[in-house]
């Protein structure tokens, strides 16, 4: 095998010759950054809807993906989570380590045969045995019905929202933005890990018929918590 | 043997064979297309799938009021990335390395295959799970790994259908779009050993889920492509639907990502444009179910060894040409093939490349450095539907014309084509049309000769010899009794 450096030099050399062979002087990172800043962006960056309309749009779009969506007040969240878990008919759940204490209310724990596994680096086969998972999220995007996970302690490692067949995600209304650019605006720093989730796992590979659930969770449940009027913080 | 007879012979030979997607070996487009045109089942499958995607796409694009502004921004962002490609790639390399990844550079397909094999040998891997990647098909990675004793498991549903059914991809987003449900049922029942499998897509999908589940949990090495590389952060993004991508990105110990050098975007926030365009263009969804982005290695989450192989394989030569450079803006959404009236009739295999349709018609010959796939720039009616739908505004007809010019320039220099009727004819025409008297003489002769074949209705229905190539499929209007310049001369004389 050729030394790696030689392929690197060869490829970069060809690129530089191709881009800068003409009139353009070799661009530096600073020059590139300056040019980049000047690129026109005339697309919609801000939403136009009211807070309520934006939330309704988010819910409508999620339902179009066959997600189950319910709304509740902040003080009802614990009970709502418990009700959702019970309605799922499942018993073994996994949760990220940073889930707010109030989310797993005693009511949920008392339902006789619920079994919780908190993910402190659980091996994959143990997560695979779980039937469901509950997490928070970083952001919800109404325009496309997208839930964004940055995999913090309330959202968990990527694998826990992947292997269980049933996924319950809690989205606070204050986390919902209308457009995708508004989500990017909420990122102070680019995150190292992101998963954008839009509905349950699906495929249209056979005759373009959309089928729910291939390898990811087949069931996506979302609880939207109406926390807006209390003026709670926007970000996690 | 004449070129046409040669084509026929190739066509006969290939009738029952698996389509050839190696541009160096594939028959010319018209020959390969002929085979498909005779396969009415395949045409029906392709047309059905295309109609479904097109209708969904049209509805979702129409609801997006800033669609044109998004397209313009996307084109400029991609142009900026290409203009300063070396800067952005070095930035990506530095950030990815700092985050615990390892970046490799491959100047061509063989180089990339060798690098990946060495990495797999280091891991002592004898099997590998794969996320759908057209780039790996481009470098023919699977047969190479199999030949070197490494089993490859494709995990995208369409790719499983093709791998188990020993088929070839005919589309870059839904590669098995030419296969219908009963054909899938037959393949799965036979290869997975399932009796009584129904042909309902739900049942077929469930079969694929069961087939792969254990592989996901046990195979320690995975290979992926990349939809985007982010220079600012050294991150890689993969856009998918099924969750097979997420499985490969989180469960194995080692991840190897193969990405074309053109896949880089300057900043993380550029995804706000690309993600809005990609799913709508590709599958007619507001957003695809899953998009994953990761940066090097994250302790405790996902593969703890991460390699990126940056592949040139002809891309830098496209970068060097002003008109053709826009080819590299492509984000592989396949909207152009879904919109193309030619693709709709022929499907993907006729293009003799893993990149079919209008984008394939411009990308393949260029990746082959114009040595192969010379018939592809002609596999288009230049109607412009591809340009209209392209989310990054690649003017495909413009590039097609440029490539046709290059093919022609190249061909007429070849000694063997000196007596080719086309080039012979054009040379004669060049002489005739540059001299008025010769031109008049030719018209006079033409009127006499064509007059012999012109019927009473003023049309020529059949010509002998080479002229039959025209009249086989359409009529030709006979020449008028008087040429314009004769009429003009008469008129001028009359005035005097």
What does this structure look like?
The complex is a heterodimer of chains A (236) and B (496). Chain A is α/β, with parallel strands linked by helices. Chain A has helices at residues 4-20, 29-37, 51-64, 77-88, 106-110, 124-129, 180-186, and strands at 68-72, 92-95, 115-118, 132-135, 139-141, 146-149, 166-172, 176-177, 194-197, 202-203, 211-212, 219-225. Chain A has one domain (51-230): NagB/RpiA/CoA transferase-like (Rossmann fold). Helix content of chain A is 30%, strand content 20%. The longest helix of chain A has 17 residues, at 4-20. With 496 residues, chain B is of the alpha/beta class. Chain B is built from 23 helices and 12 strands. Mean pLDDT of chain B is 93; it is low at 9-16. Classes of the chains: A alpha/beta (236), B alpha/beta (496). Strand 9 (194-197) of chain A pairs antiparallel with strand 9 of chain B.
Please give the alpha-carbon distance between the first and last residues of chain A. 49 Å
* Widest β-sheet, arrangement of strands of chain B: 1-10-7-4-2-3
| Sheet of most strands of chain B | 6 strands, parallel
Strand content of chain A: 15-25%
Overall geometric form of chain B: elongated
Mean pLDDT of chain A: 88
**SS class of chain A:** alpha/beta
Instruction: Please give the most extensive interface between any two protein chains, plus how many residues each contributes.
Output: A-B, 76 and 101 residues
Whole-number average pLDDT of chain B? 93
Radius of gyration of chain A: 22 Å
Look up the CATH topology of the domain at 3-52 and 317-413 in chain B: Fumarate Reductase Iron-sulfur Protein, Chain B, domain 2
Shape of chain A: globular
Q: Label the CATH architecture of chain A.
A: 3-Layer(aba) Sandwich
Oligomer status: heterodimer
Distance between the termini of chain B: 59 Å
Give the strand content of chain B. Answer: 5-15%
Q: Helix content range of the residues of chain A, please?
A: 25-40%
Largest sheet of chain A: 6 strands, parallel
The strand count of chain A comes to: 12
CATH superfamily of chain A: NagB/RpiA/CoA transferase-like
In the CATH hierarchy, what is the class of chain A? Alpha Beta
């Amino acid at each position: 095998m050729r030394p790696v450096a030689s392929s690197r030099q060869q490829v970069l050399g060809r690129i530089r010759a191709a881009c800068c062979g003409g009139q353009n002087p070799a661009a530096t990172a600073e020059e590139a950054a300056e040019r980049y800043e000047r690129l026109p962006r005339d697309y919609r960056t801000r939403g136009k809807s009211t807070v309520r309309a934006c939330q309704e749009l988010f819910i409508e779009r999620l339902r179009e993906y066959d997600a189950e969506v319910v709304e509740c007040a902040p003080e009802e969240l614990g009970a709502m989570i418990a009700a959702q878990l019970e309605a799922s008919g499942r018993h073994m759940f996994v949760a990220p380590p940073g889930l707010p204490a109030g989310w797993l209310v005693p009511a949920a724990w008392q339902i006789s045969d619920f079994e919780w596994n908190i993910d402190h680096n659980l091996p994959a086969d143990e997560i695979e045995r779980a039937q469901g998972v509950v997490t928070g999220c970083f952001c919800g995007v109404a325009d496309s019905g997208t839930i964004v996970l940055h995999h913090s302690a309330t959202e968990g490692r990527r694998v826990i929202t992947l292997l269980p067949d049933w996924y319950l995600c809690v989205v606070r209304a204050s986390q919902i933005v209308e457009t995708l650019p508004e989500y990017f605006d909420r990122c102070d720093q680019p995150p190292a890990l992101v998963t954008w989730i839009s509905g349950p796992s699906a495929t249209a590979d056979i005759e373009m018929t959309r089928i729910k659930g291939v390898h990811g969770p087949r069931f996506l449940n979302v609880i939207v918590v109406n926390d807006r009027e209390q003026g709670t913080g926007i970000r996690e | 043997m004449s070129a046409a007879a040669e084509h026929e012979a190739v066509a006969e030979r290939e009738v029952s064979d698996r389509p050839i997607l190696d541009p160096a070996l594939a028959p010319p487009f018209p020959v390969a297309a002929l085979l498909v045109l005779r396969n009415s089942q395949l045409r029906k499958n392709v047309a059905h799938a295309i109609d479904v995607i097109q209708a969904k796409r049209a509805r979702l694009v129409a609801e997006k009021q800033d669609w044109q502004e998004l397209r313009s921004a996307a084109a400029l962002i991609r142009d900026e990335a290409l203009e300063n490609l070396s800067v952005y790639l070095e930035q990506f390399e530095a950030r990815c390395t700092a985050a615990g990844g390892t970046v490799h550079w491959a100047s061509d397909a063989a180089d990339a295959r060798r690098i990946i094999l060495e990495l797999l040998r280091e891991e002592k891997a004898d099997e590998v799970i794969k996320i759908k990647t057209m780039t790996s098909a481009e470098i023919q990675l699977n047969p190479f790994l199999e030949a070197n004793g490494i089993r490859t498991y494709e995990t995208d549903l369409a790719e499983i259908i093709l791998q188990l059914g020993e088929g070839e991809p005919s589309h870059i987003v839904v590669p098995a779009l030419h296969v219908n449900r009963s054909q899938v049922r037959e393949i799965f029942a036979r290869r997975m050993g399932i009796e009584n499998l129904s042909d309902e897509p739900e049942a077929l999908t469930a079969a694929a889920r069961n087939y792969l589940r254990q592989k996901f949990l046990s195979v320690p090495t995975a290979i992926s492509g990349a939809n985007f590389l982010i220079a600012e952060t050294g991150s890689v993004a993969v856009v998918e639907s099924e969750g097979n991508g997420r499985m490969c990105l989180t469960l194995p110990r080692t991840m190897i990502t193969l990405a074309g050098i053109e896949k880089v975007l300057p900043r993380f926030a550029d995804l706000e444009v690309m993600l809005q365009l990609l799913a709508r263009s590709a599958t007619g969804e507001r957003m695809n179910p899953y998009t994953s982005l990761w940066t090097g290695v994250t302790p405790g989450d996902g593969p703890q060894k991460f390699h990126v192989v940056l592949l040139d394989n002809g891309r830098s030569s496209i970068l060097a040409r002003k008109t053709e450079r826009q080819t590299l803006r492509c984000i592989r959404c396949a909207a152009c093939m879904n919109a193309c009236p030619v693709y709709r009739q022929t499907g993907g295999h006729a293009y003799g490349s893993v990149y079919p349709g209008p984008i394939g018609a411009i990308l393949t010959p260029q990746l082959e450095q114009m040595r192969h796939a010379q018939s592809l720039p002609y596999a288009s009616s230049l109607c412009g539907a591809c340009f209209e739908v392209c989310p990054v505004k690649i003017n495909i007809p413009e590039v097609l014309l440029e490539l046709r010019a290059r093919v022609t320039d190249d061909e007429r220099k070849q000694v063997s084509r000196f007596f080719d009727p086309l080039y012979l004819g054009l040379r004669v025409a060049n002489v005739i049309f540059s001299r008025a008297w010769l031109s008049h003489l030719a018209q006079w002769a033409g009127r006499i000769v064509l007059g012999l074949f012109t019927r009473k209705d003023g049309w020529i229905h059949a010509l002998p010899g080479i002229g039959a190539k025209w009249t086989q499929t359409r009529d030709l209007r006979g020449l008028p009794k008087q040429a314009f310049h004769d009429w003009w001369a008469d008129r001028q004389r009359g005035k005097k």
